[in-house]
Write a structure and sequence with these properties.
This protein is of the alpha/beta class. The chain has 15 helices and 13 strands. It has a single domain (14-444), classed as TIM Barrel (Alpha-Beta Barrel), CATH 3.20.20.80. It binds ligand PGI.
Length: 447
């Protein structure tokens, strides 16, 4: 039963949609670009579920003008995208590739002409392969490599970008790339993971300092958060929930907002947990302007001592609705998560920088794609976001994930999140019903 009462968001609330470079651009080596670690990883046998790679993706590198026209059709006020580091710096540092900068200048000019606010993420997982080969984020120098890259973007593109984010979801880089090995670089190392997390946050802080020196606009950090519940009232499951909460939700935010890491992490990593310099922890506290929160689902946890940290596993909920990712549809978790951030971290300005769902959409028919489950997912989560605003959360905007069906990392192209369907054999775009629903939400500034 959908609640039919109408709701209105505050004046000036920012409505957008999001993508990332490796997932939509294609042409990974065009015009002097260097390979990223995701280019390298996706070409490894069996790395990607359907054997997909980002070689073509949505061909956005060449079709960006058509895609900006789609954004206008949807009435987007903002567009969140990421910059491919290895287009700008083919070897990750040193020599700049002017053609790489020129692509993003063209994209930014089209967006500004269309009255769409660019929101640029500096790093959305695609590290230059040349830097991966020097240890990547496990190398303490990675923070400086990132700061130099950031400085170039602020200098070259800064006058066209009002909203910047340093990193997208450091937790996923650590968990999927260094703990479970299912994302680039495909490592499984309890010794590397804590250092990778730490160097990512050092990079974020040095990036913010570079921004303060010569950036314009606002800069933030984007994290994925998921409220954790206990599968039973027993102490073991409660402890598992607490470990899972520390591991996903508190690790990075405590680092940059409180200057410390949760004690549970040292406990669960044991002798693999390093001793971090106090000077480093002070650097992490470099203040930034907003928090980007990516919300999709919650998880219900039980104790799993045999698992790597956080020694927990999620339990499927009988009778609940799930997306194609196996993620429970749980909009109330968004309200709860936003309230938790407000209370724990001092009421920072927040953007929902990603929210969306993968459902098995039908092929386009007569120029239409019926995706009612995605419409209901978005409706429910927009209501939850509005409830958080009513409860006093300083929520400034919302970006739907994603503008386009795209490359869903290790799952390839089968999982579709787009407001717009992409037929990858023809590259034809078709706005789905959820895209038209979202267009109307933006036009009404509410439901
Ligand atoms: O999975 C959908 C999207 C990705 O396509 C985005 O690139 C990424 O920013 C993103 N993060 C999340 C939530 C965190 C997560 C990512 C991957 C696997 C499990 C959880 C969901 N998504």
């Amino acid at each position: 039963m959908t609640d039919s009462s109408s709701i209105r968001f505050p004046d000036g609330f920012l409505w957008g949609a999001a993508t990332s470079a490796y997932q939509v651009e294609g042409s990974p080596l065009a015009d002097g670009a260097g390979p990223s670690n995701w280019h390298h990883f996706s070409h490894q046998p069996d790395a990607i579920a359907d054997g997909g790679t980002g070689d073509v993706a949505c061909d956005h590198y060449r079709r960006y003008e058509e895609d900006v026209a789609l954004m206008r059709q949807l009435g987007l006020q903002a567009y969140r995208f990421s910059v491919s580091w290895s287009r700008i710096l083919p070897e990750g540092r040193g020599r700049i590739n002017p053609a790489g900068l020129d692509f993003y200048r063209r994209l930014l000019d089209r967006l500004l002409e269309a009255g769409i606010q660019p929101c640029a993420t500096l790093f959305h997982w695609d590290l230059p392969q040349a830097l991966q080969e020097q240890g990547g984020w496990a190398n303490r120098d990675s923070a400086n490599w990132f700061a130099d890259y950031a400085h170039i973007l602020f200098r070259e593109l800064g006058d066209k970008v009002p909203l910047w984010a340093t990193l997208n979801e450091p937790w996923v880089v650590v968990n999927d790339g260094y703990m479970h090995g299912v994302h680039a670089p495909g490592h499984r190392s309890l010794d590397e993971a804590p250092w990778v997390a730490h160097n990512l946050l050092r990079a974020h802080a040095l990036g913010v300092q570079a921004f303060r020196a010569d950036g314009q606009g606002q800069i933030g950090l984007v994290v994925n958060l998921e409220p954790k519940y206990a599968a039973s009232v027993g102490p073991d499951d409660a402890a598992a929930m607490s470990r899972a909460h520390a591991y996903m939700n508190r690790w990075f935010l405590d680092g940059v907002m409180l200057g410390s890491y949760p004690d549970e992490l040292a406990e669960m990593f044991g002798q693999h947990w390093p001793r971090f310099d106090l000077a480093d922890m002070a650097l992490l506290l470099e203040p930034f302007d907003f928090l980007g929160i990516n919300y999709y689902t919650r998880s219900v946890n039980r104790d799993a001592p045999q698992n790597p940290p956080p020694h927990a596993e999620s339990v499927r909920q009988e009778g609940a609705e799930y997306t194609e990712m196996g993620w429970e549809v749980f909009p109330e978790g968004l309200t709860r998560t936003l309230q938790w951030v407000k209370q724990r971290y001092g009421d920072p300005p927040i953007y929902i920088t990603e929210n969306g769902a993968a459902f098995a959409d039908p092929p386009a028919h007569n120029g239409r794609v019926a995706d009612p489950r995605r419409v209901e997912y978005l409706r429910g989560h927009l209501r939850a976001a509005h409830e958080a605003i009513r409860l006093g959360v300083n929520l400034k905007g919302y970006f739907a994930w994603s503008l386009l069906d795209n490359f869903e990392w290790s799952l390839g192209y089968a999982k579709t999140f787009g407001l717009v369907q992409v037929d990858f054999s023809s590259q034809r775009r078709t706005i789905k019903d959820s895209g038209y629903f979202y267009r109307d939400v933006i036009a009404r500034n509410g439901l």
